[in-house]
Amino acid sequence: MDASRERGITEVLTLAQAVRGAVSQVIEGKPEAVDLAITALLAEGHLLIEDVPGVGKTMLAKSLARAIDCTVRRIQFTPDLLPSDITGVSVYNQASGRFEFKPGGIFAHLVIGDEINRASPKTQSALLEAMEERRVSMDGTSHALPRPFLVIATQNPIEMEGTYPLPEAQRDRFLLRISMGYPRADAEVAMLDHHGDADPLEPLRPVTDAAAVMAAIESVRKVFVHPAVKEYLVAVLNQTRALPQTRLGASPRAGLQLLRAARARAAMDGRTYVIPDDIADLAVPALAHRVLLNTQAQLAGQSAADLVHAAVKAVPVPTGRH
Question: In terms of residue numbers, what domain contains 200?
Answer without folding.
Answer: 2-222
